């Protein structure tokens, strides 16, 4: 059984009129290698004729963004020519690699009609060997992602990447990053074995669960030690988890603004390259 190192709580960090809780980094935890950053936007309801999400064109280099759309929708457009509107239940996986410019905004329909919105964005590091890889983007709708029915239907697991219960995840990332969202009905139980050399990412999006004997609730990020293998999870009420795991890269992390590299020099180079127009053209 894995032991729990600490249970962290996401901090309120609103962006304009967007309710946002930041689970990583906070004063109590900087990162869980290779997981660097998590913003939990919403839950909130937008009125008709709203401005939508505030994430206009901005650059990235050196890592990946994995965005989970729980409610509402998200329009992605980037300097590599990738464009899509992903609706509730879908996921976007963007590899910034050597650099691109992207925008993440609400669809015209959402801005006109309004509605519920809840979105999570996770930043996953890239190792030195992949930091300058070609940028890539894949957006999948809910129906494109394998949904597993477990515990007599009380647990529904969306296999985003990696291997879950013998089923291959929908995304095939550059590195062995296993990600899933897990929906529990009250009383639902799920147990999984994760090799002890892998770091676990465990965030409670909604509800309240018991994991390995400890209680974790909405906005809690549970940090585990690297000792046992087994996680035993039981939902005290209807709950949603973001669950992932990966072998840590154990490389220096220098993060500044939208760039995550291995050294200060590489970060300075990223700013210079961006200013020199090497991240592509933005035709927003």
What features would you describe in this structure?
InterPro entries: Pirin, Pirin_C_dom, Pirin_N_dom, QDO-related, RmlC-like_jellyroll, RmlC_Cupin_sf. This is Pirin. By secondary structure, the protein is mostly beta strands. The chain has a single domain (4-276), classed as Jelly Rolls (Sandwich). Helices cover 6% and strands 52% of the residues. The strands form six sheets. Strands 1-22-19-24-17-14-13 form a seven-stranded antiparallel β-sheet, with no helix packed on it. The protein has a seven-stranded antiparallel β-sheet with strand order 2-3-4-11-6-9-12. The chain is globular.
Describe the structure concisely for a colleague.
The chain has two helices and 26 strands.
Task: Summarize the topology.
Layout: E1 4-9, E2 11-12, E3 20-24, E4 35-46, E5 55-60, E6 63-71, E7 73-78, E8 83-87, E9 91-95, E10 100-105, H1 108-113, E11 115-125, E12 136-140, E13 146-150, E14 155-161, E15 163-164, E16 167-168, E17 178-184, E18 189-193, E19 199-206, E20 208-211, E21 214-217, E22 220-224, E23 230-235, E24 239-246, E25 254-256, E26 259-261, H2 264-275
Antiparallel strand pairs: 1-22, 2-3, 3-4, 4-11, 5-10, 6-9, 6-11, 7-8, 7-10, 9-12, 13-14, 14-17, 15-16, 17-24, 18-23, 19-22, 19-24, 20-21, 20-23, 25-26
């Amino acid at each position: 059984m894995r032991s729990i190192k600490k249970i962290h709580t996401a901090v309120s960090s609103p962006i304009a009129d967007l309710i946002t809780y930041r689970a990583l980094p906070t004063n109590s935890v900087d990162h869980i290698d290779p997981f660097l950053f998590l913003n939990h936007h919403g839950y909130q309801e937008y009125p008709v004729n709203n401005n939508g999400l505030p994430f206009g064109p901005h650059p990235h280099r050196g890592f990946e963004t994995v965005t989970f759309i729980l409610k509402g929708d998200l329009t992605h457009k980037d300097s590599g020519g990738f464009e899509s509107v992903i609706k509730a239940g879908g996921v976007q996986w963007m590899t910034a690699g050597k650099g691109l410019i992207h925008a993440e905004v609400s669809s015209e329909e959402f801005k006109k009609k309004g509605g519920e919105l809840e979105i999570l964005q996770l930043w996953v590091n890239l190792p030195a060997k992949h930091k300058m890889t070609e940028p890539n983007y894949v957006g999948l709708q809910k129906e494109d992602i394998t949904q597993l029915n477990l515990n007599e239907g009380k647990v529904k697991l969306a296999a985003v990447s990696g291997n879950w219960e013998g089923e291959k995840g929908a995304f095939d990332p550059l590195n062995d990053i296993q990600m899933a969202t897990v929906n529990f009905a009250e009383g639902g139980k799920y147990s999984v074995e994760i090799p002890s050399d892998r770091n676990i990412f465990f965030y409670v999006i909604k509800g309240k669960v018991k994991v390995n004997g400890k209680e974790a609730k909405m906005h809690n990020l549970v940090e585990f030690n690297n000792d046992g293998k087994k996680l035993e999870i039981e939902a005290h009420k209807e709950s949603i988890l973001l669950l992932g795991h990966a072998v840590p890269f154990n490389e220096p992390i220098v993060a500044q603004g939208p760039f995550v590299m291995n050294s200060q020099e590489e970060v300075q180079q990223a700013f210079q390259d961006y200013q020199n127009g090497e991240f592509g053209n933005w035709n927003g």
